[in-house]
Amino acid sequence: MPIISDPRTALPKSADVVIVGGGVVGCATAFFLAKAGLAPLVLERDQLGCEASGEAAGMLAPQAEADQAGPFFEFGLAGRRLFSPLAEELKAATDIEIEHRPIGILVPFFGDSDREALLARARWQQKSGLSVQALDRREAIAAEPLLTDKVEGAISFPEEAHVNSRGLVMALAAAAGKHGASFATDRPVTSVIRDGDKVAGVRCADQTVSTRTVVLAAGPWSGLFGEALGLSIPVSPAKGELLLVRPEGRLPDRIVYSKQAYLIPTSRGEAILGTTTEFVGYDKRSTLAGLGAILSGVSQLVPTVGSATLLRAWAGLRPHTPDELPLLGRHPRIEGLILATGHHRNGILLGPLTGRLVQELILGMPPSIPLDPFRPDRSMPFPA
Ligand SMILES: Cc1cc2nc3c(=O)[nH]c(=O)nc-3n(C[C@H](O)[C@H](O)[C@H](O)COP(=O)(O)OP(=O)(O)OC[C@H]3O[C@@H](n4cnc5c(N)ncnc54)[C@H](O)[C@@H]3O)c2cc1C
Q: φ and ψ at 195, to 5 degrees?
């Protein structure tokens, strides 16, 4: 893949499209644009996938996370459908295995309110024709013998899946490169250059790249471009911590999930445990409080987890918006500026489809899903 990694190397003077940010959204956008015959340039401040995209838990879980049907739910389902063919395409193009595994998610319930909310979720999803099963206590424990004996039942979402997030970013970037995209790392974009109400290029240290189209995919840093552009781009960081452990005995066969915590068995016999949500700026430290909260939450689901060996602890920053929906589309006030950010907890699930949607926007094609609910200039319930 053509990566300009030496900051002393001159950047190209112009590009069809400049993508700011080399996370899953930026790399997926580069992939779909390059496949369509354009030559996008990705400018990444640090390394590809160095932020949330390379650090995420990797669940593809539109059903387990959804409280209601609606455009965001449809976005998630369409995003999940893209993964099987994408995994094959990326493997064939790059030989990188993104470890897409539709292992399913089990959501146990414990008290009356928990049970009613989850059974209601199972009912509306069943009515929509989706694959979901309500299990009683005996069935839940038979399905997953490591569950706590306090469990009263569970909802099973057999089509939910897991993917290796870092592998996904690297495969998208490598495939994009094969189709003609370029990447420059260690290149922080300092501003988007305007010519009146149009995009004219970007500035990167003392260099300028001319372009008529900029895709802003800088994750929780995207909001920092707003002030200079005179726009509100309400994205801010929502910190989440994760742990990687090796269990003493066997692992659950599927993801075990609750609102408080989750356990994801990986293909290497380890487990990813998550997570926390904190609004503490750009702080990415792993804390004992975070570790304690995750351990306590997961132990309530799978009590044997306490004897596992801790292999790694880390944190990442989700791009959060006030209404928790992505900002996706052309900005109506600046011609040539496309926002592709704010995917919060679901950027791995939604990243590839976001790349395709940006490709459709740039080529003037009808979008695969309605984009109006994600308009970058929509009114938000409260300030970021
Ligand atoms: C703990 C945790 C668990 C998660 N689990 C899941 C999950 O299970 N499933 C799921 O779907 N999602 C999950 N997510 C969410 C997901 O990781 C994010 O939504 C997604 O990675 C966002 O991708 P992005 O490309 O928009 O942003 P990022 O990954 O943040 O990428 C943005 C890139 O822009 C670069 N950048 C910033 N400023 C500049 C600049 N000025 N110039 C150039 N480049 C710049 C950054 O260096 C970064 O590489 C999780 C997130 C966290 C933190």
A: -120, 95
